[in-house]
Write a structure and sequence with these properties.
It is a single chain. This protein is of the alpha/beta class. The protein has 2 domains: 58 residues, Helicase, Ruva Protein, domain 3 (Orthogonal Bundle), CATH 1.10.8; 210 residues, 3-Layer(aba) Sandwich (Rossmann fold), CATH 3.40.50.10880. The chain is 51% helix and 11% strand. Helix 11 links the parallel strand 5 and strand 6. Helix 1 packs parallel to helix 3. It is globular. It starts with 6 loop residues before the first helix and ends with a strand. The mean pLDDT is 95.
Length: 284
């Protein structure tokens, strides 16, 4: 997905928020705003938001000297998600369509986003996602592909969300490789976050090698790219991964699972903001 004009003020708002989390030194926070503001004029409209986010958050870490300002928030998010696990699992067990409920739960976890979706309410948004109609519903295609898949590559998104992903992984009953970021970026999941969530008990965890808030293939490791391109079934969680991959030729291999958390993405996909999506990738 390309960058839209409405993305630019969002980049600056995210920079201010991240800088305030990273430090209480107002001089450093002001420098973040100054330098990110200068960076914005160099961001082309044909770049993806995760490409720009990667550069912006690198700058924030450089200025504040804090490489993982969201560390505490990520840990607390996972602890909160783990407290919900028994209830969420009971919803799967009681459902007439266990796989579909597990997908709903995985998408519900996508509300845990301290980039585009700051200020979310856990209980309200999770409950809403478990009940609302899908805006895009390629579920039959998902089931058909799952039936024939030998191994699943699952592109994770945020810390805390991993717990919700675990429920879907358990329900699919196929070997899964769960992919995390190569370095801290916002509240995106790294290996440590996935292990805290218990993903290592149900899947093989690998790093994509990127420090971007989305799976930008050009920034990923050679090993991950080989895994990605040799996969027959890829699940992509969240907005950042959609933004990074939806416009590529590889998108035909992917099922995108996400909640649409901003109006720019809503327009791009063609749904209402707040919609929940199971979308089969298209040929490009």
């Amino acid at each position: 997905m390309r960058t839209y004009l409405d993305c630019y003020p969002c980049f600056l708002n995210q920079a201010l928020r991240a800088a305030r989390i990273a430090t209480d030194d107002e001089a450093k926070i002001k420098r973040v705003l100054d330098e990110v503001g200068m960076m914005l004029k160099e961001i082309p409209l044909d770049s993806t938001p995760p490409e720009s986010g990667r550069l912006i958050y690198r700058k924030i870490s450089e200025i504040t000297e804090n490489i993982d300002p969201y560390r505490k928030i990520k840990k607390e998010s996972t602890e909160k998600a783990l407290s919900l696990y028994p209830y969420l699992k009971s919803r799967v067990v009681a459902s007439n369509d266990r796989l579909l409920m597990a997908i709903r739960i995985a998408i519900a976890g996508n509300v845990i986003d301290f980039g585009a979706n700051w200020g979310f309410d856990w209980d309200t948004e999770v409950a809403d996602t478990l009940e609302k109609e899908f805006a895009l519903f390629d579920y039959d295609k998902f089931r058909e592909k799952l039936d024939t898949a030998q191994k699943i590559v699952y592109l994770g998104d945020n810390a805390g969300e991993c717990v919700f992903d675990k429920i879907l992984i358990e329900e699919m009953k196929k070997p899964v490789v769960y992919v995390v970021r190569g370095a801290p970026i916002i509240n995106d999941a790294t290996r440590a976050d996935a292990v805290q969530a218990g993903i290592d008990k149900v899947a093989t965890i690998v790093s994509s090698g990127t420090d971007a808030p989305g799976t930008i293939l050009d920034t990923c490791s050679t090993e991950f790219k080989a895994l990605f391109h040799n996969s027959d079934f890829i699940i992509s969680k969240g907005q950042g991964n959609y933004e990074a991959l939806s416009h590529t030729s590889a998108s035909r291999l992917i099922f995108f699972l996400l909640k649409v958390k901003c109006r720019v993405l809503a327009r791009n996909i063609g749904v209402e903001e707040g919609g929940i999506v199971i979308q089969a990738g298209r040929d490009r």
